[in-house]
Amino acid sequence: MIYLTLFLEFFKVGLFALGGGLAALPFLQDLIVKYGWMTAEELLNMIAISESTPGAIGINTATFIGFNTAGIPGGIIATTGLAAPSIIIITIIAHYFRKFNQHPLVESAFSGIRPAVAGLIASAAFELARGGIFQLQNLQLNGSLLELFDYKSLFLLLIIFAAIRKFKKHPIIYISTAALIGIIFKF
Amino acid sequence: MNKLLKIFLIFFKIGSFTFGGGYAMLPIIKRELVDNLGWIKEKDIYNYYAIGQSTPGIIAVNTATMTGYSLRGVKGALAATTGFIMPSLIIITLIATFFKRFQQIDLFQHAFAAIQIAVVALIIDIVIKMWQKSDKTKVSLLIFLLAFLLLVIFNISPVFVILGSATAGILIQYFRGNLQNAYYNYQNDNQGSDE
């Protein structure tokens, strides 16, 4: 029964993938190989599309594989399977968190966690920038500091950042504008 | 408007504009739920994100479930998560149906490359705001830098960063004597509320 297989396999991925969509990718690749759901080329295209369309990467990939395997119900079932462990586990945690979030131990723990979360978020930005804005491989190849930056990207970053600080508009506006700029100027 | 429907619609919007990992949803969550509606405190979002990071599952889904639960219990959690997932289901199904040979893949990738840059800018802005709203102590700065460097240079798992910083937080409050005082007050408060 393909629907049950899809649900259970994606439920397992949701249960064991710690660290978000990218952490789920190796699990998903194993699945595809195990069941022969896609070719290697389809898989590569699928990951590229899942990364560059809105939504969590893991969720997009699950919808993709489910749809390719068993049509629209397949897409829905795979995605539900992937999200189900999160919903169950987090609901239990949220219940106790609400009960104990005033507890001194929990409050002290979160006083340490909050600056670390800022570090986590900053590191996510840095990793993104490492791919697009810094060209570390150029520095290693040519030893040229001038080629460390992708100037087109750096320029866009500075402009968007200045606009965010000045106009304080909804983030969606910057994301949509960037998408247009990316298509027009072939980023 | 029905609050559940509103939670669903807000997370539908968040799901439609989250490109990349769970961190990319934070600027939009903050804008919608903290700045526009005042439904949750800014500090709570980061707590929920920390919990979402250190629990199994997709971080964005975890964060959506956690936030939804805080707004309206289990129903809120389901409304938020369904709302967040729905755009993926629709968009990916459309793409998988109509772009069989993925001819337009370049277009998506050009758009995405520039969107990533916008996300970097939005996140830098969020980190600056987090710092402005924090207690601005040297210890906080140290934890921030340590977390950042461990993640970037040593590629250590975020789970360990969160567990480590939680321990640090407890030890710091303990050695300052804050933990003992808070504990005393907490017990008194709870006894009061039981009677």
Plain-language structure description:
The complex is a heterodimer of chains A (187) and B (195). Chain A is mainly α. Chain A has 2 domains: 2-100, no CATH class; 104-184, no CATH class. Chain A has 8 helices and no strands. The model of chain A has no long low-confidence stretch (mean pLDDT 87). Chain B is mainly alpha-helical and 195 residues long. Chain B folds into 2 domains: 1-115, no CATH class; 134-189, no CATH class. Chain B is built from 8 helices and no strands. Chain B has helices spanning 3-16, 26-36, 42-53, 59-98, 105-133, 138-153, 158-175, 178-194. The mean pLDDT of chain B is 89. The interface between A and B is large, with 99 and 105 residues.
Quick structural overview:
By secondary structure, chain A is mainly α. Helices cover 82% and strands 0% of the residues of chain A. The mean pLDDT of chain A is 87.
Tally of structural domains of chain B: 2
> What structural category arises from helix and sheet content of chain A?
mainly alpha
Strand content of chain B: under 5%
As for the number of domains of chain A, it is: 2
- Helical/strand content category of chain B: mainly alpha
Helical content class of chain B: over 70%
Gap between N and C termini of chain B: 38 Å
Which H/E pattern describes the elements of chain B? HHHHHHHH
Q: Count of helices of chain A? A: 8
Give the proportion of residues in helices of chain A: over 70%
Q: Estimate the global geometry of chain B from the Cα principal axes.
A: globular
Low-confidence stretches of chain B: none
Distance between the termini of chain A: 44 Å
The Cα radius of gyration of chain A reads: 21 Å
Described by the principal axes of the CA atoms, the overall outline of chain A is globular
**β-strand amount of chain A:** under 5%
Family (chain B): Belongs to the chromate ion transporter (CHR) (TC 2.A.51) family.
Organism (chain B): Halanaerobium saccharolyticum
Protein name (chain B): Chromate transporter
InterPro entries (chain B): CHR_Transporter, Chromate_transpt
